[in-house]
Amino acid sequence: MKPFRFLQAALPAPRNLTNILEARFTSFLSAYRKRRFAALSPFNAIAIDDDFDGLIALGSSRSTHDSYRLNDDDVDMITRRARRIVALMNAQSEGGHLTEDQVKRLQLATTTPKLVPVPDINAPDEIIDQLHSEFPWMTPATDAVWQALRLSASRGDQGVRIPPLLLAGPPGIGKTTWARRLGSLIGVPTGIIEATSEPASFALVGMQKGWTTAASGKPMDLILRTQVANPIFIIDEVEKAGRAMSQNGGAYDLASSLLPLLERESSKVWQCPYFQLPFDMSWISWILTANDASLLPAPLRSRVTVIDLPALTIKQIIDFMLKEGRRRDLSAPALDAAMIAMQCAATRGTMPSLRTALRALDRAEALQARPMMH
């Protein structure tokens, strides 16, 4: 199996690499010379022993010090060799344009980012059983994930990879909560872009140098921070993403930026606008959510599996609250308080949703944690 490489390019040598190589070569050559000198005679070995305080007559006019100490020619040779190695590395690098800070961020990316695989053939069933138990109304999405996990486990893939999904359904049914829980159960990091509250295109791919707010995108940041190259990444309410305008009048929309990342082949050598280098982003599991999938452009819909989800029933919300309350170890009074809060919301005309249920549980948990007044 071919080793996974996240960064698909060679970095330039660190600025202090020449000094590092010179120190290593000097240490190696000095130790090698000492070993050879010591092997000539047991007296030589004693003479160069730092712990020996006596005097040894070596029977030679040449001092012990000069026998193995590096001379000026040795030092010049070491310097030339270190500089030649650095020059070769820089000649092969595509990152001559990178700043020192960018090189530091990417140094681990040349070898370290890993792929998290399915642990064993039974793991998909265990993960899906847990998801079904917690989110029974999300069965269509859970079943799609089960198929992907089973296939990954049977093939022995290097890492878990779920084909792009679009969860379409009314607000407040737990689409984002379900996706986060999926990442937790699989054991991979989870990231999110809120398409309604940030410039989604720039948050996704980043901004190249020349912009006042130049930065890498959130998926790149997540991989570099966690050193896991197959996270789950959520784009919430994707149909509401607007267009971002550059200072020179250029328009950038989320769909156009996302398309190359959803395609397996193009995402293997995706060109990061910020670092201006190719990266293998093909192992990211993309989960998009939308209230109305029909508002999305056809090219985007054609690259994802659209899963339509129904609205939640009151019974499903209550069942969820009971299970989540037990998972949080809420007391009976605290859980009753959460239920009452939900009933009050319903009487005020607020449509019950998973979002309001979670807020009620959060308040109940906070109240339970408060110290008792005497």
From TrEMBL:
InterPro entries linked: AAA+_ATPase, ATPase_AAA_core, Lon_Prtase, P-loop_NTPase
Protein name as it appears in the record: ATPase family associated with various cellular activities (AAA)
Domain of life (superkingdom): Bacteria
Source organism of the structure: Loktanella salsilacus
GO MF assignments: ATP binding; ATP hydrolysis activity; ATP-dependent peptidase activity; serine-type endopeptidase activity
Biological process per Gene Ontology, one example term: protein catabolic process
Domain AAA+ ATPase: 161-311
UniProt xrefs under Pfam families: AAA
